[in-house]
Amino acid sequence: MIIDFIENSARYEGLHPSFKIAFDRLKQQDKAALDGWVDEENGVKMFGFKGESKTKEKALETFECHDKNIDIQFCISGKEGFLWKPRANCSIANGDYNTEKDVRFFNDAPDTYFELQANQFVIFFPEDVHAPMIGDAELNKIVVKVLI
């Protein structure tokens, strides 16, 4: 997991061949206009979300990780909370892996809680189990899926 501000994204572009594309799209995107999925080239697609946040308890119902994609989650405005735990320390599966949606869920207790503020991003690799969308106000965010 990596947390930083969008202005520092160049530091991470060498970690994956499509990260530069993903970060360039985030910087250039009309963030207010993005609503729903936008398919992109080179294994990068974006999803704009504006809506209600969740409690920590509700977010834990979808404590998730991915096998085929890396998530870059970007906070446009306000704050967004996340729960996190290393996948290697998770042992209580919540259903089977969904190949179509590239998601698996766990019922383990998280190790960490953190918040993003406006213009911050978090990168979740397959080894990062996470529960996003925690807060007490409306969320305004973008999720970028980068195919591994």
TrEMBL record:
Q: Which organism is it from?
A: Flavobacterium agrisoli
Q: Which domain of life is it from?
A: Bacteria
The protein's name is YhcH/YjgK/YiaL family protein
The record's listing under Pfam families reads: DUF386
Cellular component aspect of the GO annotation? cytosol
Q: Which InterPro entries match?
A: NanQ/TabA/YiaL, NanQ/TabA/YiaL_sf
